[in-house]
Design a protein that fits this description.
Low-confidence stretches: none
CATH architecture: 3-Layer(aba) Sandwich
Number of helices: 9
CATH class: Alpha Beta
Shape: globular
Number of domains: 1
Strand content: 5-15%
Order of helices and strands: EHEHEHEHHEHHEHHE
Strand order of the largest sheet: 3-2-1-4-5-6-7
């Protein structure tokens, strides 16, 4: 029921972190993965890593905030493999931790363009193909900060709550077409080890894991990807419109 062999899965934002961990895991289960990223060098590096693992894949430079680009990405996958079975809408830009009173219009535009709008454009690109096949799996990615109202993360949390709302609407509209749509709230997935994380962000995550049921970051490949794989499989056929945490119980800190 959780077999992903030969399934064609699009993973946006898959050049590092959770997205790359998902690509490694799903590819290891036999899926054909299509990965996207915005930077040429990162896309090339991720593609090289997947080549080394023997994962059948396509790697495409694309910005999820560009609707036409996402339509073209999916068309390329369909041209190569004849179908698209799953989408993991993982890509979203991030802004530094900022008090709500100081959030700018540019902050809001970036997070909503790459978050809910990018998720919607990716959904729109895959849904016609899934509807024709009578089968499809869509997994969106959110954050528990939208539920807890984490200070400093207002734009990011709000944009992710919009993603959760789109998830529920999509589940309602496309369920009769054989398409399920669910949202995963992952753990931080080693942001403390991300060289691009600010000192403030690293400090916030260090404090977070002092009061955490399991006491550590989530591993993208071993802790988060198995849940996503289930939601992409036949085994999840009666699960839709749901928000499911993969955070080691971290939300219980709130």
């Amino acid at each position: 029921m959780s077999d992903l062999r030969d399934r064609v899965i699009l993973i946006t934002g898959a050049t590092k972190g959770i997205g790359l961990g998902l690509a490694r895991h799903l590819g290891g289960l036999g899926a054909r993965v299509l990965i996207t990223g915005r930077r040429d060098e990162r896309v090339a590096a991720a593609s090289g890593e997947l080549d080394g693992l023997g994962v059948e894949h396509l790697a495409v430079v694309a910005d999820v905030s560009d609707r036409e680009a996402m339509l073209a990405v999916v068309a390329e996958a369909v041209e190569r493999w004849g179908r698209i079975d799953g989408l993991v809408a993982n890509a979203q830009s991030f802004r530094p931790v900022t008090p709500l009173a100081d959030v700018s219009a540019a902050d809001m535009d970036l997070l909503f363009d790459t978050g809910p709008k990018g998720t919607l454009w990716s959904m729109q690109a895959v849904v016609p193909h899934m509807t024709s096949a009578g089968w499809g799996r869509i997994v969106t990615m959110g954050t528990s900060m939208g539920l807890t109202g984490a200070a400093g993360y207002g734009p990011y949390a709000a944009s992710n709550e919009a993603i959760r709302s789109l998830t529920r609407t999509a589940a309602n509209e496309w369920g009769r077409d054989g398409i399920t749509v669910n949202c995963v709230l992952p753990a931080s997935a080693a942001h403390r080890l991300d060289p691009e994380s600010s000192p403030e962000r690293k400090a916030a995550f260090a404090a977070m894991y002092e009061n955490h049921p399991i006491g550590r970051d989530g591993d993208p490949e071993l802790d988060i990807a198995p849940l996503v794989a289930f939601l992409l499989s036949d085994g999840s056929r009666y699960v839709t419109g749901q928000t499911i945490g993969a955070d080691g119980g971290g939300i219980m800190r709130a």
